[in-house]
UniProtKB/TrEMBL annotation:
Pfam families: DUF3099
InterPro entries noted in UniProt: DUF3099
Protein's UniProt keywords contain Transmembrane: yes
Protein name as annotated: DUF3099 domain-containing protein
Region (Disordered): 80-104
Keywords noted in UniProt: Membrane, Transmembrane, Transmembrane helix
Organism this protein belongs to: Nonomuraea montanisoli
Residue ranges crossing the lipid bilayer per the database entry: 31-50, 56-73
Length: 104
């Protein structure tokens, strides 16, 4: 009898960026959502009988969303904060052990 294991959360212990696969997947999902909204705007602009101000809003969404979607899909790793690696300041008055000369 097999036991099904629960998936455990993976905790990050570094400030490393996400993998390339995860980044591409995030950008693809974002692009598909924006293009889906664009398709809905196009259908609403053509099919639904609404007053002109609303129709112009739907047409603007259908025209400008592809540009926004492509720009967003080409942003690589922009949502990840930069690494916060801090170099400790060296104590200049002390010579490290591995650098001491013989007899000192």
């Amino acid at each position: 009898m097999k036991r099904w294991r629960k998936k455990h959360d993976v905790h990050q212990v570094t400030d490393a960026r996400p993998s390339l696969t995860a980044d591409i997947q995030r950008r693809e999902v974002s692009y598909l959502i924006k293009m889906g909204i664009r398709t809905i705007c196009l259908i609403l602009a053509v099919v639904v009988p609404v007053p002109w101000p609303y129709r112009l809003l739907f047409i603007a969404g259908a025209v400008f969303l592809p540009y926004i979607a492509v720009i967003g899909a080409n942003e690589r790793g922009m949502d990840v904060p930069p690494p916060t690696f801090q170099t400790p300041e060296a104590n200049q008055s002390e010579i490290p052990r591995h650098r001491r000369e013989i007899g000192s």
